[in-house]
Amino acid sequence: MRTLTKTWLAALAAAILLSTPTMSAEAGDLKDASEIVNRTNTAQYYAANDGRALVRMKIVDSKGRSQRRQFAVLRRDKADGGDQNYLVVFDQPADVRGTAFLVKKHANKDDDRWLYMPGLDLVKRIAASDERTSFVGTHFFYEDISGRQPEEDKHQLLETTDTEYVVKSTPKSSSGVEFAHYTLYVNKKTFLPSKIDYVNAQGKVYRRIETVKVDTVKGHPTITRLKVSDLDSGGYTLSDVSNVEYDMGIPDDIFVEGSLRNPPQKWLR
Amino acid sequence: MKPTLCTTKQCRGGVPSLRCLAVAALVFAALAFASGAFAQDEHGAGVPAAEEGAGESDAGPSTDAEGEAPAEPRAEETLEAEAEGPVDAADSAETPEELAGDVEPTEDTGGDEDWGEFDDWDEEDGGGDSGTKAWGFQLGGFVEGLIAPRVVRSSASASEFAAAEARFRLNLDATHEIASARFRGDVYADGVDSRVWFDIRDASIFVRGGNWFSMRFGRQVLTWGTGDFLFLNDLFPKDFNSFFIGRADEYLKAPSNSVQTTFMMKKVGLDLIWTPIFEPDRFIDGERLSFFNPLIGEIQGDRSPFSPIQPLFPDKRLRNGTIHGRLYGSAGPVELAAYGYVGFWPQPIALTGLPDPTNPPQLTYARLGVYGASVRAPLGGGLINVEGAFYDSFDDRVGTDPTTPNSQFRGLAGYERELFPKFQMGLQYYLEYTLKYDELQSNSLWPAYEQHEFRHLLTLRLTQFLVMDNLELSVFTFFSPDELDTYIRPRVTYKVIEPLAIVVGANLMFGRYDYTFFGQLKENTNVYARLRYSF
User: Given this model, what pLDDT does residue B133 score?
Assistant: First the structure.
């Protein structure tokens, strides 16, 4: 069960599926790379004010062995680009069914996270952890799920095509990151990333995240299929998002300890 | 081997009503399940995959040892099926290059077999995607084998094994928007005592009344407090036998038949739990694990005519029930809680009378009240927790009665953080301060064996995750600098393939003296291997 210690970020996976629409006005191309990245962050992680989704992941390792993860996510934003609450309830694999995470994501400080282990009826608070390590045993990192703060990188607009912006992002501090830079391909209409290439110090792309499918739900373009590949090992993880709903009116008071023990079925189903 | 069905060890101690309660709860849960299934049909929502399981639930938990046998081969079959899986996956696995081209984000690359698999995922597994259905059902569980040979010579215990068992667990859940029913039941064949045990860990109904009130009643496992394997304000029953023989961590907590009510007001919550019939710990009674018995002045194991210890239980009257309360809330990232308990010491550490050759005393449970508080907050990239509890031994507040434990203050301070990626460390300092110690010493029946006025305990937890979180290395160590004893729990957990996990570990107890908390357990030192197949 402790494998899932970091599973809370799953919550954030929800964010991935919940993407934003607001910027579809074609008022000419943007020139400011930081502006593009900020809009991408909002589009990808802050769609609507609240949302629900069912996330299923298939993990395939370099030897072709596969595993599954399945969880439901509830999210409520306090402010776009700011604090968010997440509740994540695991359904698969079988040995972690009923395990749940409560995440209070903070824009400017460490998140508060709790893990519920049903066998022990234990609500365990979880310390802050490295954001660039495997999220619940998948090829996603926590940071892929919860979003990387745009201010952590310097952004440079490399190219503007008919459909995309291409932005190179270089970390301001190399501590805690394994990449030298990454290249972000952003759809000009939806501001959702279509691809992210992570480049190491040798200039080689070793890791890639690709958007495979986008659906529009209640006017919000939403990434519903995503693939992350470890190009060195050949392993990859597929993420499929379904049952998406936005602006359900999820109240703030369900993001409490009691909801870990007894998940609020009214909002999850 | 004569199979004996029993809900708990205490059955043999003459508490048949526990069994009745458990069976009643089971029937109740099964009925709830059946009525849920009926409601679902009414809604015309079709037959979910889990419903067949719901039918089995009636028979499953009540089967005896034979229930065990069919489960094992099934595990193997599925294992083979799984093993074939990777071959297919490898065939269909796309290379990263195939996907390297620009993907139009508004189109589905539908031809990919990998993705197609998601479409029928729900049907296979019953899933959490219950859509508009009124009731959701889930069936699950595991089959597990555990073997734990003793590795030190023991004169007190005859058995060469601390554990040798095959276990079948059934989990059933029926959930509705405002109510749910839950069942967790184990059947296990125990090679150490040559019995078949039937242990219901949960058979409860949950009801929600808006966002401010909820209630769970029935048999359930309960936990609270901030300690890691140390419980100050958590007086819910523990199973210390399970803890020391390599069973999964969850078995440290034993169930009780209780009513839990929760009130939520803004950021403050109140839990009140009533256990009408006192449920003690499943303590170490000498039969499976040996312990130091101060009455006889030596380590007592299954060779002893006094094993297992059979304490005198409080009368089953309502006034002998236990009440647990917790008031909790948070101020920013800081969590605060206050706790209260009225009931009995959870272990039989009192005597019914002074030793008398003609009328030997029995061990029993003394009355106890516990009042405490805890704080938990982030600090320096980790978490700090502080907890205190006052153990008020009602019947011997002056501390002069040698048959009744003295009051104590218990304190805990802990800190945990991730030192390196996927490497976590947790440190705890724990203190037991026994009040009226002079009175205790001058009246004690065995002053040499009494624990010190201040008992200090340090714990260290180290955990490392490797291989995409599929391999976990961990060690948890207890060490008491004043009792000079230690307990080390090294463990390796490997998830071989998805449903199959193997755990190898050890329970290593050392101590300079035979009568200290961990030192008395040293002859039980064991290594273990556990194989679990989850479904």
Answer: 64
**Residue B279, in any domain of the structure:** yes
Query: Where exactly are the structural domains of chain A?
Result: 2-268
| The one-letter amino acid at B19 | R
- Considering its fold, how many domains does chain B have in total? 1
Element housing A220 (H / E): strand A220-230
Beta strands, E only, B81-154? 136-149
User: Does residue B424 belong to any structural domain of this protein?
Assistant: yes
Nearest-CB residue to B85 (from A66, A225, A258) = A66
Alpha-carbon distance of B350 to B365, in angstroms, equals 6
Pick A269's closest partner by Cβ from B125, B130, B221: B130
Q: Is the ipTM of this complex over 0.90?
A: no
Q: Dig out the tokens for A142 from the structure.
A: 């926590």
pTM strictly above 0.90: no
Structural domain includes residue B379: yes
- pLDDT tens per residue across span A154-200: 999 999 999 999 999 999 998 889 999 999 999 999 999 999 999 99
Question: B142–A94: do the CB atoms touch at under 8 Å?
Answer: yes
CATH code of the domain containing B165: 2.40.160.100
Q: Is the dihedral of CA A24, A25, A28, A33 positive or negative?
A: negative
Contact B86 A64 (CB under 8 A): yes
What residues of A are in contact with residue B501 (Cβ under 8 Å)? 95
Alpha helices in chain A (DSSP H): 9-17, 33-45, 142-146, 257-261, 265-268
Determine the distance in angstroms separating the CA of B258 from the nearest CA of chain A, rounded to an integer: 14
Give A114-132 pLDDT, tens digit per residue: 999 999 999 999 987 888 8
Inter-chain touch B130–A213, beta carbons under 8 Å: no
Could you tell me if B459 and B230 are in contact, meaning their C-beta atoms sit under 8 angstroms apart?
yes
**Residue B45 forms part of a structural domain:** no
Instruction: Write out chain A residues lying below 8 Å of B420, CB-based.
Output: 130
* Nearest beta carbon to residue B269 from set A1, A93, A258: A258
Q: Which domain holds residue B187?
A: 9-29+135-534
8 A C-beta contact, residue A75 and residue A249: no
Average pLDDT over residues B284-309: 92
CA–CA separation, B60 and B29 (whole Å): 13
Q: Which fold has domain A2-268?
A: outer membrane lipoprotein receptor (LolB), chain A (2.50.20)
Query: Does B14 have pLDDT greater than 70?
Result: no
Rounded Cα distance between B283 and B240, Å, is 6
- Spell out the residues 6+ positions from residue A162 whose beta carbon is closer than 8 angstroms to its own: none
**Among A86, A85, A51, CA closest to A245:** A51
Phi and psi angles of residue A12, each rounded to the nearest 5 degrees, phi first: -70, -20
Residues 310-329 of B with CB under 8 A from A: 328
